[in-house]
Each structure stands twice: as structure tokens, then as C-alpha cells.
Amino acid sequence: MRDPELMKKVMKKAVSLGKKEIENGRVADYIPELAKARKDALGLCIVEADGAVHKVGDTNIPFSLQSISKVVSLCMALELHGLDTVFSHVGMEPSGEAFNSIVELDLQSNKPFNPFINSGAIAVESLIIDYRSFDDLLDFTRMLFLDPEITLNRQVYNSEMATCDRNRAIAYLLKSKNVITTNVDTSIELYTKMCSLNVTAESLANFGLVLALGGKDPRNGNRLLKAETVQTVKTIMLTCGMYDGSGQFAVEVGIPTKSGVGGGLLSVVDREMGIGVYGPSLDAKGNCIAGKAILRYLADKLNLHLFHE
Ligand code: GLN
């Protein structure tokens, strides 16, 4: 366990640096319900392997998981089918394009570049749909986040379902290329429901810790995920977790992280800690702008970069 006083000091400083970035970003508004978020909200939670919990700021405000749900769905697909089957439907390369890009899928590839862009996540959802219901996935999410309170945010779900024509277009393109064979509407509904689950910075940190511990429950050591699933997911978080900002983030911060346009960041410090950030002001690529500054500072002060000396 790290010195609690030092943790508090470093985390407070990180959040104050993050606050300065908020004005340089924007709250997502392409899903109308997300535009209602408080732009200046900011919370940071760190959970250490021995159970120590450190919180600064708005760590208990519920917000929707959005693209961080792609990590949960990838875990489920890998648990169900294993590596070879999953990656015969979706690639494992960074796309270098925006999360909702459609062009490279049409022109360059017959399968989505990776499971963390929308096309890839919709393909992953279609691998789950015949085996698990939304309720099963909700239970799975509650188990992994150590949070029985996680529920579907109906307002966000309805708002996205009313405006997700681009995701529908992606799903039809996937179907035309036989990447998915499931019903487009049902695939989009499941994808959007997973994006609309309400979590907190604290529950994100819990999931980060489960991944940091190789898929084990920090409370009792019980295995929740296969080691192979977790190793794969963490690697793709490092290479693709911040969309077309993943390379720069990996160099500057070096902590496997997944972002969502709801403002969440899920980060994994291997074997040591889970980190959850909430801040709905986003950079141009859709990543929490304050969170990036926070994690960079934490990596520097606490030696959290994967390849630190
Ligand atoms: N639900 C969002 C979408 O499909 C998720 C995107 C994100 O968080 N980057 O557009």
C-alpha cells in the first residue's frame, strides 16, 4: 500500500491540474442527453490491491459508461468464444480514425480494425447476442465493477436510440460484409444499452483493479475472468483505448486506459491499482480532457508508466 498522505497530496494536485483543462474541452452533445452533464464536474478514485480507496472530487456522480462498455463486452465475448474466434471477426490494430469512423471499414478492411471503435464493438456484441441477454450482461458488469447499483439510464438510452443513425449505418455495412449475421436492430439495441449503463468513478476504479489483478476479485481472490481474457483486454486498452489519441497517450502516460464520451476513464496499473476518472469535458477525440492531465501527472509522480525506470 502506498503512503495515504502522499496519495492524497498527489491526487489533489492532479485534480487541480485537471480542472485547468476543463475549459479547453466540450461536453458531448451528439447524444442530446449527454449535453446535460455538468461540464466542471471532476472526480478521481484510486483503489489499491489491498483495498485502500482514495477519492478526490465528484467520485459518486453517476454517468453513462459509453465506450468503456466495449471493454466489458470484449471480456464477455472472449470468455464465451476465446481469442481465435473473436479476432476472426474483429481486428486488433489501432485504426488511427475517430471512434465512429466508417470509411476504413468500407475501403480498407473487411473487418473492423479493433473492438474499441464503434464498428468493432457492434461486431463483438453480435458474438454475444445469441448466448447472453442484456440482463446477463448487466449482472456481468455489476460483478466486474463490484457494484450491484449499476442500472440502465433510460434517458440516455432513449436519447441515443433516437440519434444513432451513424451506428445503424455501421451495423448495416457490417452486415453487408457478413461480419455480423445478427439482426441489425437487436445488435444496435444491445450495444446502446451497454453504453447507457450508469456507473461512478469509484466503480470504474474497482473494475480497473480487477483487471490489474489478472481478473481476480480483490476482496477474496476469486477468479472472475480468465487470465487470457484479461491479458488481451489490457493490451488492447494500451494500443486502442483512447481512439486516435492512443499512441500519444501510451507514450506520455503509459497506463492502459479506456475512455467513453460520458466522461469516464478506466485505467489499470498492473498488479497494483485501478483508477477511475469522471469529467465530461472532452477533447476533440472524445477523451476526458481533465483526465488525461490527471493521469499524466499521476504517472509522473507515482511512477505508474508501464515502462518506468
Ligand atoms: N454510445 C457512443 C456511440 O456509439 C459511444 C462512443 C464513445 O464513448 N466514444 O457513439
Describe this entry's structure for a reader:
This protein is an alpha+beta fold. The chain has two domains: 4-63 and 205-301, 3-Layer(aba) Sandwich (Beta-lactamase), CATH 3.40.710.10; 67-195, 3-Layer(aba) Sandwich (Beta-lactamase), CATH 3.40.710.10. It has twelve helices and ten strands. The chain has helices spanning 4-21, 69-89, 103-107, 118-128, 134-144, 154-161, 165-176, 184-195, 201-212, 227-240, 246-252, 289-302; strands at 26-27, 43-48, 53-57, 63-64, 151-152, 197-199, 257-259, 264-269, 273-278, 281-282. The protein has a five-stranded antiparallel beta sheet with strand order 3-2-9-8-7. Strands 4-6-5 form a three-stranded antiparallel beta sheet. A two-stranded antiparallel sheet has the order 1-10. A hairpin with a 4-residue loop joins strand 2 and strand 3. Helix 7 crosses helix 8 (184-195). It is globular, with a radius of gyration of 18 Å. The mean pLDDT is 96. The structure holds glutamine. Glutamine is lined by residues 66-67, 99-100, 118, 160, 167, 195, 260-261, 286.
Helical stretch tally:
12
> How many distinct beta strands?
10
Please indicate the percent range of residues in DSSP E strands (runs of 2 or more): 5-15%
Whole-number tally of structural domains: 2
* CATH topology term of the largest domain: Beta-lactamase
CATH superfamily of the largest domain, called what? DD-peptidase/beta-lactamase superfamily
Bound molecules: glutamine
The CATH architecture designation of the largest domain is 3-Layer(aba) Sandwich
Main β sheet profile: 5 strands, antiparallel
Low-pLDDT sequence parts: none
**What's the gyration radius in Å?**
18 Å
